[in-house]
């Protein structure tokens, strides 16, 4: 999560799962968790750019057997003091079922 910077992610090779948690109270997507599969295994290679607004918690994991290349085009130069590193478990991120977010749970969904 960044206070001032927005990120733009695109997967150049391989596959990832991008997790987004919107903790902004005034947002239409407040308190929602989105898992976005991106990469070569998706229809049409899922080669799209995701704009991650400021104050939205985000993280990703490589999905599949091959390495992934993730490109980021942020709106500002990186500034460590701009970044908030709050684990998803500490911000209240949950799946639709109410289960707390964890990367282990995402791995189970992928096996599923």
Q: In angstroms, what is the radius of gyration?
A: 14 Å
- Report the major sheet: 3 strands, antiparallel
Helical content band: 10-25%
The termini sit apart by 29 Å
Tally of individual helices: 2
Supply the helix-strand structural class. mainly beta
Strand content: 25-35%
Unreliable stretches covering 5 or more consecutive residues: none
Mean pLDDT: 90
Tell me the strand order in the biggest sheet: 4-1-6
Strands, count: 6
Globally, the shape reads: globular
Q: Helix-strand pattern, N to C?
A: EEEEEEHH
Structure report:
This protein has helices at residues 88-91, 103-111; strands at 7-13, 15-22, 32-39, 50-52, 56-62, 69-72. It is mainly β and 112 residues long. The strands form 2 sheets. The protein has a 3-stranded antiparallel beta sheet, with no helix packed on it. A 3-stranded antiparallel beta sheet has the order 3-2-5, with no helix packed on it. The protein is globular.
Characteristics of this structure?
three-stranded antiparallel beta sheet; single chain; mainly beta; 112 residues; 12% helix; 33% strand
Structure at a glance:
By secondary structure, this protein is mostly beta strands. The protein has helices at 88-91, 103-111; strands spanning 7-13, 15-22, 32-39, 50-52, 56-62, 69-72.
């Amino acid at each position: 999560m960044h206070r001032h910077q927005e990120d733009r992610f695109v997967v150049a090779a391989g596959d990832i799962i991008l997790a987004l948690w919107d903790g902004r109270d005034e947002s239409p997507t407040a308190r929602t968790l989105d898992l976005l599969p991106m990469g070569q295994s998706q229809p049409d290679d899922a080669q799209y750019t995701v704009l991650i607004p400021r104050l939205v918690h985000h993280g990703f994991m490589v999905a599949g057997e091959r390495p992934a290349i993730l490109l980021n085009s942020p709106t500002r130069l990186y500034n460590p003091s701009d970044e908030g590193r709050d684990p998803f478990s500490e911000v209240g991120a949950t799946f639709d079922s109410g289960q707390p977010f964890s990367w282990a749970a995402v791995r189970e969904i992928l096996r599923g």
